[in-house]
Design a protein that fits this description.
It is a single chain. This protein is an alpha/beta fold. About 45% of the residues lie in helices and about 25% in strands. It starts with a strand and ends with a helix.
Length: about 120
């Protein structure tokens, strides 16, 4: 069972992600702030991070860029920004514009986890 960290400041979105990822068989840790997400990333050793791009005064991409260990990351945002998308992809993250259907997110999570565990 994969451990997935969700860092999302919108309560309804965070709850929805948590529930449908749990139903898909994942162990889910859900946090609402950049600081909580950074702490959980350091202490929980997640297999994958799903982070909102805008987290108060922080950028969810910073979770990936500042992590001592590379963690597969999916950045979700309500705002399409080609510069931030390019930066996310250069850092190895997927970049998804909301809304994303539960089935699409579960499929993307599965693909990211398979890439992580696949041949290098």
């Amino acid at each position: 069972m994969a451990k997935i960290l969700i860092v999302e400041d919108d309560d309804a979105t965070r709850t929805g992600y948590r529930e449908f990822l749990r139903l898909a068989g994942h162990d889910v840790i859900a946090t609402s702030t950049y600081q909580e997400g950074r702490h959980a990333a350091a202490t929980e050793s997640p297999d994958l991070v799903i982070a909102d791009l805008r987290l108060g005064g922080f950028n969810g991409l910073q979770l990936l860029l500042l992590s001592p260990q590379p963690i597969p990351t999916i950045i979700v945002t309500g705002f399409h920004d080609e510069v931030l998308e390019a930066e996310a992809r250069r850092a190895g993250a997927d970049y998804v514009v909301k809304p994303i259907s539960p089935s699409s997110l579960v499929t993307l999570v599965k693909e990211r986890l398979e890439r992580k565990s696949g041949p290098h």
